[in-house]
Amino acid sequence: MTKIKKFITALAFFLIVIGIKTEYPLAVPTTGADFIVTPNHDLTPNSDSNRKNNLWINVKSVDQPLVFNIDNKSSDAREFLITANTAYTGIDGQIHYDLAVPRLDRTLVYNFRYFVQNNDQRVKVPAKTKKSFRLNLKIPDTESYHGQVLGAITVIELTKQDQTNNKGKTNIVNHFSIGFPVALNFGGSEIPVNSAETPFKIGTIQPGFGLRGGLAILTELRNTKPAQILDFNLDGKITAKGKNKVLFRSKQNLLAMAPNSIYNYQLYWTTKDGFKAGHYHLSLAIKVPGNPAKTYHLGKDFTVTPSQAEKFNRKIGIKPNYLWLYIIIAIIVLLLLLLLTFLISRHQRNKSLREK
Prior knowledge:
Elements: H1 2-17, E1 35-39, E2 55-58, E3 63-72, E4 78-86, E5 88-89, E6 95-96, H2 112-115, E7 121-125, E8 129-138, E9 147-158, E10 163-164, E11 170-171, E12 176-186, E13 200-209, E14 215-223, E15 229-240, E16 246-257, E17 262-268, E18 278-288, E19 294-304, H3 306-315, H4 323-355
Parallel strand pairs: 2-12
Antiparallel strand pairs: 1-3, 3-8, 4-7, 4-9, 5-6, 9-12, 10-11, 13-14, 14-17, 15-16, 15-18, 18-19
Keywords: Membrane, Transmembrane, Transmembrane helix
Domain WxL Interacting Protein host binding: 169-314
Organism: Xylocopilactobacillus apis
């Protein structure tokens, strides 16, 4: 039964991480391998006690404690590693809170992980015991900043196989972890979901390979505002620069982005001939729900160079098509032969006239 319980809980955690969302996409399982993690609202000031699966805090002080309870249901003592992570947007277009190194936008002012002064602490909990742990957040400014900072507190159950390297860092070999999302709201009131005005910008655009392995145009879609953006639809089109004919198109629905983060948007280049060097234009229409709903239109030119086209095409077995090059060379050779024939003919005619 214990193994079945672990499997079901781990499966639920995975499904939620990859994109099952609530009104605020912050809920993850809080029970796991014989231990439970819950927020201690009584010892965490400015937190909303009505939210059971996340900490939603209206920040009012530069010193903000976060207090959680670990309830060890096991008959054995347990040791846990407590670490803080900053929310980011995954390649699947959803908000993630895991231990990965996030790609954050340069407009990010506050990084949740850097707020925590006593990060990566260890907590030992005796068998059949509930114990609290405290994280101290040191926030530089609570008055001039207006927006939201998202992150998560991850509780990792350490096992006997976990080892410590020479620098004192823990190398997790086998573990069960629980991520508990935290939303810090600045500005005196809760920041409404999808409140950001004109949040999107297009970063770099370049050819490459998509997640499925095919050729794709890889685009950095930036959320430049300190607010999460939920359930938006994206319609992307590629045309030749200055032309209206759509060459490639991709629609994605119910996407979500963390505050000040980057979504690596992939628009697949679906042609058997591979990349073709040239100048192109990317157009994005992004519809964000709300009352009223908003649609943002973005566009940016980009270039696929001959070397880029050849490089990626070769990797998937597409050889360059030199037919037109051969045709051009043949035409040039033919013109040279005609010119040479004309010159020889004229020379002979002039010679005949002089002899007369």
